[in-house]
Amino acid sequence: MSVPSVGDASLDQLVQQWLSLDQNPKTRKEITDLVEAGNKAELHTRLDARMEFGTAGLRAAMAAGYSRMNDVTIIQTAQGFARYVEDVQPDAKSMGVAIGYDARHNSQRWAQLSALALVARGIKVYLFSAICPTPFVPFAVCKYKTAAGVMVTASHNPKNDNGYKVYWGNGAQIISPHDKGIASHIEENLQPWPTAWDVSALESNDAFRALVVDPLAEVTASYMDAIREHSIEGSPRDAIKITYTAMHGVGLEFAMKAYETFGLPPFVQVAEQVHPDPEFPTVKFPNPEEGKSALDLSIRTANANDSPVIVANDPDADRLAVAERRPDGSWKIFTGNEIATIFAGWLLQQYLKTHADAKNAACVASTVSSKFLKRMAEVEGCYFEETLTGFKWIGNKVIELHAAGRDIIMSFEEAIGFSVGTVVFDKDGVCASAVMGLIANDLYSRGSTLMQQLEALYLKYGYFASLNSYYLCYSQPTIQKIFQRIRKDEQYPTSCGGVAIRHVRDLTTGYDNSKPGNKATLPTSSSSQMVTFTFENGAVITIRTSGTEPKIKYYTELRGDASSV
């Protein structure tokens, strides 16, 4: 069928190119409908540029076009990924690749399309047969010693989005040079291979079927065995009722198993949200980090069941939110920094019950997260290290410290991402939810609460007050102008709000006037914006762009000694 022209030769060529690649009737129709409507602007948006494959993999809206998530872009990505894996890892065919997916629209199909690309190259695939939490993929990578792993998920993004998250063979998210290597291989493999479209071939083709293994049951059992080491013997199990929500995602089945593994009683379920639903009907943004708007139903359920503590996973169960009822009946929704403080204080206390001191213990946090762990490490004599933002950096640093013989207590980023120990080298909301259940029961059995524990830790180590948020900005030129104005050829602001700025670190340019030669020691990247100001009064402010969302984020923190409060 001929396609009407939009009267623009270069755009018509892009349309014809797309239609020559796409065999999905739905996304083909999206493009032809835009052509027939003469919507040049939207066609340019969809077809002019490809999604950029980076250390966060891919994440975008699901729709037709090179800048969106769809069958074509997934096939192209999977083909490039497959070729890169076999080029870099000589034993990739026998080592295999682990592939999981969440409950979003298209996630299962795109996991299958990815598997199809890999088996077409003779690479073994550990393809989960049903939805699973994101942390199960890096766990599977380590368990089976695969060459790499893929999780199809958009985590906590709105329902129209999806994503493609890649892990390397060490079990951590990819960092350079793998992101660049995969991106270049994608560009070299844009034409769908002859076997690219027919996912039924995973069953009907004997050669393909022989290369596909379902790891779901085995990984689930092994994972539960692995987290058992954090189930502290003798710790109270039934002091309180805990309320749980999966935020319409994958978490329920696995959180239940984790609670059983820890010997914790069943939690109260938020009935409207615990089962998978890609439409996310009860929340505009399926992100427990959004606070009360995302936890309204949880609070209602907890109140109805006399449950003083809420734990919430995001849709792919790699993050954890926590809330607690105050004595006046209102609810305290803890920030990621506050949750990490509670985790760190309790976990170190447990560690010291079996170790003479904390010298070999270690904690890791991202540079925009609270400095509480750093302060705790200074007081207790344990090791602390800071990384760039994101668990791709945190996970790789934890692997390095673990290999050096350090006992990893925990690692975290302020965006409610936590990893306890070394079960998974990525954030893990399943294990974290069970450990938080253990902490809450322990505290309540002793007549305390999470809020009182937080206060006690602040009294011991100092008060940490933080305020983090973001501004939406969809214009890259505007973002560039904002940061150009901030740095002004390294003539950075010298004060703000009447307080002098002591140090400036710019991880976009590599400038850091707190280091010899004004050179930053953390990795720098000119493709993202990140500037940190340290003030004379100890306050720290970081401004950065998001790698997965159209946001300019800001992070602020001020510490005060308990004696001065």
TrEMBL record:
It is found in: Cytoplasm. Its cofactor is Mg(2+). CDD domains: PGM2. Keywords: Carbohydrate metabolism, Cytoplasm, Glucose metabolism, Isomerase, Magnesium, Metal-binding, Phosphoprotein. PROSITE patterns: PGM_PMM. Signal peptide: none annotated. Residues 51-190, 222-324, 336-458 form the Alpha-D-phosphohexomutase alpha/beta/alpha domain. It holds the Pfam family PGM_PMM_II. Residues 527-561 form the Alpha-D-phosphohexomutase C-terminal domain. This is Phosphoglucomutase. GO terms for molecular function: magnesium ion binding; phosphopentomutase activity. PANTHER family: PHOSPHOGLUCOMUTASE 2B-RELATED, PHOSPHOMANNOMUTASE 45A. InterPro entries: A-D-PHexomutase_a/b/a-I, A-D-PHexomutase_a/b/a-I/II/III, A-D-PHexomutase_a/b/a-II, A-D-PHexomutase_a/b/a-III, A-D-PHexomutase_C, A-D-PHexomutase_C_sf, A-D-PHexomutase_CS, Alpha-D-phosphohexomutase_SF. GO terms for biological process: glucose metabolic process; purine ribonucleoside salvage. One of its GO terms (cellular component) is cytoplasm. It comes from Capsaspora owczarzaki (strain ATCC 30864). Belongs to the phosphohexose mutase family.
